[in-house]
What we know:
Elements: H1 2-19, E1 25-26, E2 32-33, H2 53-60, H3 66-70, H4 76-89, H5 99-110
Helix pairs in contact: 2-5
Amino acid sequence: MKSILFLTLVAIGFLSLQTGTPPALSGASGAPTSVADTVKTDPETGLAVDNNLALVRTHCTGCHSTKLIRQNRFTRDGWKQKIRWMQRTQKLWDLGEAEPAVLDYLTKYYGPDDKPFDGRRLPLRTDRWHAMN
Length: 133
């Protein structure tokens, strides 16, 4: 049984190397599902493709990697505060009329997300501890 499982995993790994992408997974309905997000991403930056992507690239990637954008999840106000901080301390220029569009983009694709239940239990809410004897 272990050898069958091992050979299956090796075959899946080999197929993913051949195609360059992992094989599709089957969902409950039998239809293929992807591990990746449903949002199309720019292959060069990894950012979500949108009409405002060019603005974000122009104003953001001159100073830092897009990884800094992708790893954060802020509200519109949170992104605005980050922009103000960069303007105060990092010499970011005034975004002018582009600022609302940049904020719209950042909030839409990199705003806080309500993650669905991932199978883990919520943290215990009690502070009562039982005495260990």
